[in-house]
Every structure is written in structure tokens, then in C-alpha cells.
Design brief:
Strand order of the largest sheet: 1-4-3-5-6-7-2
Number of strands: 7
Strand content: 15-25%
Number of domains: 1
Radius of gyration: 14 Å
Helix content: 25-40%
């Protein structure tokens, strides 16, 4: 695993930018809190975590979009730059330092959020559209009041 920790001002600046772009104004995000963005969909986490092909598809879609490195923001306050192949957007995946997480690229035109309440949220019009076009049963697995 190739993981570079980002410290101090840079980490804070990146986190602030992500929160601004994605209307994240509390510790928890969509669907646990309201969000002004309309390009979001929240799934029951089991829908993705229990199907290895879905995780592989997420990685493939991001790679096809030219994404090689991403930012990982953990609820512990730590920020990392990781390779796309090291993306595991699941609650608690990283053991003791796990918990909730946000993942996005430096363009911040997409986002993934894994919550403590068993949801995985995807944001970004292109990413949400791609997931819906391939995961034909997606409507059966949206969580809470997912907008789409």
C-alpha cells in the first residue's frame, strides 16, 4: 500500500476545500445530514461491501476517468494521498485508524463517503450516472432519503 500522510496546513486546506465544494457542514454528511447538492446517491453499505465486483467496478470507473491518486480524509482527522488501487471506501476498513472516511481527487468533481450508519454515498454527476447505468438494481439499494 502506497500511502502518504498529508500534514498540518495542507491537510486543513484540502479538507476545507472538500467541505466547501460538497456542502459538508457537520461531522456527518449525506444522507445523515442535509446537503444542497443534487448529484448524490447513498446506498446501503452492504450492497457494495458484500459484492466484490462492485468495489472493482468503482476502481475501474475512476481509473477510466484518469484518476490515479486520491485524497483520503479519515474521521480521526488524518489526511492521506493514496493510489486509486488502495481505495477501500468502507467504514472501518483501516482498523484502529478507521471509521468514517471521505475520498476524492484533487479536482473534487466526485466524492465517496462511508458513514458509521451503514451507508456509502457517491457524489458527482458523472460518477452517479455511471453507477446507475451499470448497477441496474440500484433503486432497490438506496438508503434513507437518497435523492436520486
Amino acid at each position: 500500500m502506497d500511502k502518504e500522510q498529508i500534514h498540518d496546513e495542507v491537510s486543513l486546506s484540502l479538507r476545507n476545500e472538500m467541505e466547501s465544494v460538497w456542502d459538508i457542514n457537520r461531522r456527518y454528511w449525506y444522507p445523515l445530514n442535509e446537503c444542497k447538492r443534487s448529484d448524490l446517491i447513498a446506498f446501503n453499505a452492504d450492497y457494495i461491501e458484500d459484492d466484490k465486483s462492485k468495489h472493482e467496478f468503482i476502481l475501474t470507473v475512476l481509473k477510466e476517468h484518469g484518476i490515479e491518486q486520491i485524497y483520503e480524509f479519515l474521521e480521526t482527522g488524518e489526511t492521506y494521498r493514496i493510489q486509486i488501487s488502495d481505495l477501500h471506501p468502507f467504514y472501518g476498513y483501516y482498523g484502529a485508524i478507521g471509521g468514517e472516511g471521505f475520498w476524492c481527487s484533487d479536482k473534487m468533481d466526485w466524492i465517496i463517503y462511508a458513514s458509521h450508519e451503514g451507508t456509502i454515498t457517491f457524489g458527482g454527476e458523472w460518477l452517479v450516472s455511471k453507477l446507475k447505468s451499470v448497477w441496474i438494481d440500484w433503486r432497490n439499494h438506496v438508503d434513507w432519503d437518497s435523492k436520486n
